[in-house]
Amino acid sequence: MRHRKNKRKIGAKANSQNKLLYRNLTASLILNEKLKTTTKKARLLQPIIEKLITLSRQSDLSTKRRLQSLLNNKTAEKKLKTELSKKYKNKPGGYTRILKLDRRQGDGATMVQIELL
Q1: Which CATH number fits the domain that encloses residue 59?
Q2: Which of 12, 60, 68, 89 has the most CB atoms in a 10 Å sphere around its CB?
Q3: Strands of 34-38's sheet, edge to edge?
Q4: Number of folded domains that form the chain
Q5: Between helices 39-56 and 61-71, what is the axis angle to 10°?
């Protein structure tokens, strides 16, 4: 039974594969500021990116090291610290939005575009 289990999953992948998937999705969303993906991946990605942007607004050494360990992409980390943290400095949350798109041609998966506001 699945009672009281709050964590969402994508398929039956190993935890390390999911971490790598989220890390790559967050890095590409930060670099491109929009991303076209499936609905489930976007819904799982949204709270991760919101927490990263909120974390990047702080300017101490521990948050810098935490961002380095979570992103593992120097260009994405640099853009997050320089551009995006200044852009969302006075905004308390709600940095992303999800827009529905047409279904994918091959398998009919529901597609969305997640973008930074």
Answers
A1: 3.90.1030.10
A2: 68
A3: 34-38, 110-116, 96-103
A4: 1
A5: 160
Q: pLDDT value at position 103?
A: 95
Are 96 and 117 a contacting pair, CB within 8 Å?
yes
Instruction: Measure the CA angle with vertex 32, ends 87 and 92; round to 5°.
Output: 30
**pLDDT single digits (tens) 38-91:** 999 999 999 999 999 888 888 889 888 888 888 888 998 889 888 888 888 888
Q: Residue 13: is its pLDDT beyond 70?
A: no
Q: How far is CA 86 from CA 20, 59, 71, 89, 92, in A?
A: 27, 11, 19, 5, 13
Q: What pTM value is reported for the model?
A: 0.82
